[in-house]
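Input for the complex:
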Amino acid sequence: MISDSITNASATAAPSARDFAKKKRTNRSAKLKQSKLGLRREQWLSQVAMINKGGDKEEMDSNRKTGSEKPDQRDRPVENLDGQGREEEDNSGTHGHESFMESLSNSPNSILSGMNSIPNFSSSSSSGSGGSCSGNITEEEDADDDECLDDWEAFADALAADDEKHEKENPPESCEEHENVIKQSASPRDSISGSDVAVRDAKLDCPRTMSRKQKSNQAWRPDDKLRPQGLPNLEKQRSFPVMNMHFSSVAVPSSCPICYEDLDLTDSNFLPCPCGFRLCLFCHKTICDGDGRCPGCRKPYERNTVKVEASVQAGGLTIRLARSTSMFCRVVCEYIGWYTNVKYIKLQ
Amino acid sequence: MIDFSRVQKELQDCEKDKDASGIRVSPKSDNLTRLTGTIPGPIGTPYEGGTFQIDITIPEGYPFEPPKMQFSTKVWHPNISSQSGAICLDVLKDQWSPALTLKTALVSIQALLSTPEPKDPQDAVVAEQYIKNYQVFVSTARYWTETFAKNSSLEEKVKRLVEMGFGDAQVRSAIESSGGDENLALEKLCSG
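Predicted:
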């Protein structure tokens, strides 16, 4: 049942994703991004609305499930996600701008092809998490059920307040579970570093999401640091969270500072050195064939390592591939993104 | 294979803000492997008022290898050879980075003029003078700047040579035949 709903959700989302991708190809300038803000807002609002409407259904679902079913549920959405994610990658046109994550963070760096499939699950997957992750949603829906809230903001406020209570009762548990789930999901893909990375990132993730919960008495205050970047009326110079500072402060150049050629999407997501100096893959290769030192900081590049850097930015997730040598990075990113999204939706 | 597109763009960038920086780079030959850089002497140093020319050779591996630079204008400086004009500067050697450009390298040379490093000398004689007798160093450097790094007009050159006791017409033809080089003209006048 859950798997069906997920597939349906993503199937309906696919045409619009393709539409967005076309636009992106023809017009990659920042102006377009600005014009999309409105669309993103609509999208975001509709997603929240979907949760609002789906409240009854969710409740029924989770009531029907007994305790013995829970382990199954935990695995099933993950399998589904995986298959679906690959499908999406094969389509390859369905990249980037559709991303719910991106709409939240609105950072040009956060466009990561691996993330493309996330928004499609966000609405439906919350029902899965209701049973498996913490059970918070089920109880919340019980509380809110008879009130029939139309206003999503009010709904979000109510949820947040409710969530806060639960958080006080058992804050560490949800965090641990979050980690466990990611560990489980990552291990079949990659047994060595993938799960470590995922877990480490989950740890990064947890305190931030919790702090968001504690702060949010309203849906989004205009001065809220964690307010989604995709929402309009945004002050451009608002500083990002300190944790992310050393990435955000380095603007992505439009051309490679070494060969002066334009950076393509892959190049602009390529961050070979922690100092933040960006360059195109060709120049990076040439340097690695030589002395292998970063032109920005003169420190030697780390060789043969795969690094995934993830951080939560304004409730969304920003992931960068240090070296995109392996496909499994994408998959790990999807897992991280999906679970963060689940958490995020739960907060609404 | 030299990345000429990058050199070309660097030349354009230099051209854009040459008035602000005072730094110019111009090609010597058509194939952009040999260039001439020009930097003004830093204010508040014995090199103030001078204009220094630097020969630039773009190597095969540029920008992954540093450009070869040496002064064609004679300079009295501990880190610049008074004979050859060779420059002792780390960014032109092991500290070169592909992110640097011809312009930033020239700016580094300009900075070197204002902050000599006598402990790591290129010209031992100058360095010794700098350490042991700083005042003499300053006056020598200033004299060299006046003599070699200032573009005086033709009339000034003629006037100076006439003051030495040569005939006006003779001086003018000597300067013309030596391509405006005052010292070369003097040599010609002396030799015959």
